[in-house]
Write a structure and sequence with these properties.
- The complex is a heterodimer of chains A (294) and B (321).
- With 294 residues, chain A is an all-alpha fold.
- Chain A contains 14 helices and no strands.
- In chain A, helix 3 crosses helix 13 and helix 11 packs parallel to helix 12.
- The radius of gyration of chain A is 23 Å and the shape is elongated.
- With 321 residues, chain B is mainly alpha-helical.
- Chain B has a domain of 174 residues: MetI-like fold (Orthogonal Bundle).
- The longest helix of chain B is centred in the middle third of the chain and has 38 residues.
- Chain B starts with a helix and ends with a helix.
- Classes of the chains: A mainly alpha (294), B mainly alpha (321).
């Protein structure tokens, strides 16, 4: 007895921290994850502070297709608009679409994934729908719907989230399946807990770590999807997004003569997606005690 | 029934169900969304009798279940409807383009695998080493690339600046015989490279982790213990087993690749189904959009079905699963 007490007393402080604390501790000591997180924060800031950084790019000027200079850091497009202004305002729109679409898709996907794992009877049907939607070429389907519903920001967000939730549901379902038969779930049932209580207080916390990663990855995929739709002319014509800059460059033909009209929006997309991927990887590494020791 | 036949039958049934799902979902989406095809083809400002005539011509006056039934019957007969803008059967418009899309995605798939396997093997055999790190960085960046960006840069540098490759189209006019095939291949290089670069990243990463896992399994340990050269352990024992699950994922990735081909074909003015989608979007030609999706979905389903069947032949374990 005394030995056990002594053991408890000498236990390192780190061991008594919460799991979240340990994860954050490991995450902070991974330079890759920190850089990626910093990059993401900068992008979010740029998006939020767009009006403070540059004026909204509108109207025409005579400075047509100027290469990057001290006056126009990223050059100008075929109508003389400042590309940097377009990219900065594009950050705002692209990230809004990514965030909103991801939020909707993850909410719905988590719900379906958890219900599927928890109610075996519903699982067959839900799993089938998820499997089927995952094996279809999504972009052509999104184009079809976006073309029908008419180009607007709301449409784009809805369309992207509508076709992104099956992926989330699949991931959440497989994680939830490994938990539903654990003894603590049985205990919750034996206690006479209602389904809603068990789902909320027992199953949701178990899948929460997966959700964190999924939110980031779904958002970055949504940004890519938005860029793809906008590039094909299905974007909202009244707001700037990274995909729309590329679309205008391709439509006006300046993509063949002015590299700066395509380089900067492309770099922005790449930065965001790489940052999101690295955050997800670093978070997974930090959460996994095995890779933490490396 | 022998397990292989039973397995094949199940796969085919699964493929057909997937296709039915795709067809039904497009039908419902097209009819239930706000901008329905009736207003797209015949604006409500039109002369009433003329509008009625148009709607009847395209079969848009009947009730939904009847429209659905007719639509299914027509599809089974290979009839995808009539294009709004070209007054031609959709199947004629699209079938002329399908071979180009198949050529593009097929060759991009082959290139992905041909480059992906050596890269994945190098990374897995040097796990945690410098080479592995490099491959991982390439994988993560590759996975994050935006198809049009890659396409535009390859076009700009290799097509416009260096003039090594043509910047658009599938072939030149007035070229015949063997020269035609070479010409087609030459036009294919840039679109195919754009598409392959984007799909390479995730393929390499998946292959790497599967291979690392498989190299740690008992049969590889045994092979090493027997004194088998490491090269043979990796390529013959490890890779062969790692390739199986990787191939299934590749099949799933095909849907993503078909989406990428829409973007690639748009940039390079490549005359495939994707380019038809792009052109129909501008003209709001819904029958073509719908037909193109059904056709692409059918292609993906067929490709997955073939992969699965080949799988069943190669790996007896799959048949009973």
């Amino acid at each position: 007895m005394s030995i056990m007490l002594a053991d408890l007393e000498t236990e390192p402080v780190g061991q008594q921290e919460s799991a979240a604390g340990a994860t954050w501790y490991a995450f902070r000591h991974n330079p890759m994850g920190l850089v990626a997180l910093g990059l993401m924060l900068v992008l979010v800031l740029v998006g939020l502070a767009a009006p403070l950084i540059v004026h909204y790019p509108s109207g025409f000027t005579s400075d047509v297709l100027q290469s990057p200079s001290s006056l126009h850091w990223f050059g100008t497009d075929n109508l003389g608009r400042d590309i940097m202004a377009e990219v900065v305002w594009g950050t705002r729109i692209s990230m809004t679409v990514g965030f909103c679409a991801s939020l909707l898709a993850v909410t719905f996907g988590v719900l379906i994934g958890m219900l599927g794992a928890y109610f075996p009877r519903a699982d067959t049907a839900l799993g089938m729908v998820v499997d089927l939607s995952l094996s279809l070429p999504v972009l052509p389907l999104m184009i079809l719907v976006a073309a029908l519903a008419g180009p607007s920001l709301g449409t784009i967000i809805l369309v992207i989230s509508f076709f992104s939730w099956p992926e989330v549901a699949r991931v959440v379902r497989s994680q939830a399946l490994s938990v539903v038969n654990l003894p603590y779930m049985d205990a919750a049932r034996v206690l006479g807990g209602r389904h809603r209580w068990i789902l909320r207080r027992h199953l949701l916390p178990a899948v929460a770590p997966v959700i964190t990663v999924t939110v980031v990855l779904t958002a970055s995929r949504a940004v890519i999807a938005e860029a793809g739709l906008s590039f094909l002319g299905m974007g909202d014509p009244s707001s700037w997004s990274w995909g729309r800059i590329l679309y205008e460059s391709q439509q006006s033909g300046s993509m063949t003569s002015a590299w700066w009209t395509t380089l900067f929006p492309s770099a922005a997309i790449l930065l965001l997606v790489v940052a999101a991927t690295l955050i997800a990887i670093a978070y997974n590494d930090a959460r996994n005690p095995r890779s933490r020791e490396d | 029934m022998p397990p292989l036949a039973w397995y094949a039958l199940r796969r085919v049934a699964h493929g057909l169900v997937t296709l039915w799902f795709a067809i039904t979902i497009t039908f419902l989406l097209l009819r239930l969304l706000p901008g329905d095809p009736a207003t797209a083809i015949a604006s409500t400002n039109m002369d009433a009798t003329m509008r009625q005539e148009l709607l009847t011509k395209y079969g848009l006056t009947e009730s939904l279940p009847i429209q659905y039934g007719k639509y299914l019957v027509q599809l089974v007969q290979g009839n995808l409807g009539t294009s709004f803008s070209q007054s031609e059967p959709v199947s004629t418009v699209l079938m002329a383009r399908l071979p180009w899309t198949l050529l593009l995605t097929g060759s991009a798939l082959v290139v992905t695998v041909a480059i992906g396997i050596p890269l994945g093997v190098v990374a897995a055999t040097h796990a945690k080493g410098a080479l592995d790190r490099i491959v991982q960085v390439v994988g993560v960046v590759g996975q994050s690339l935006f198809v049009p960006s890659v396409g535009i840069f390859l076009l700009y540098i290799l097509g416009l600046k260096l003039k090594w490759f043509p910047i658009g189209g599938a072939h030149d006019e007035n070229v015949y015989g063997i020269a035609w095939y070479l010409n087609v291949g030459w036009h294919l290089v840039l679109p195919c490279a754009s598409l392959a670069m984007v799909s390479l990243g995730s393929y390499v990463l998946i292959l790497r982790s599967t291979l690392i896992e498989s190299l740690g399994e008992d049969f590889c340990v045994l092979a090493r213990a027997k004194g088998t050269p490491e090269r043979i352990v990796v390529w013959k024992h490890g890779l062969r087993n790692a390739l199986l699950p990787t191939t299934t994922l590749l099949g799933l990735q095909l849907g993503f690749m078909v989406g990428g081909s829409v973007l690639t074909e748009t940039i390079y003015a490549y005359p495939g189904v994707g380019r038809a989608i792009y052109e129909s979007v501008i003209r709001l030609d819904f029958p073509v959009l719908q037909g193109a999706f059904v056709l692409l979905a059918a292609t993906v389903v067929a490709a997955n079905m073939i992969t699965d069947l080949a799988y069943g032949l190669l790996d007896p374990r799959v048949r009973t699963a």
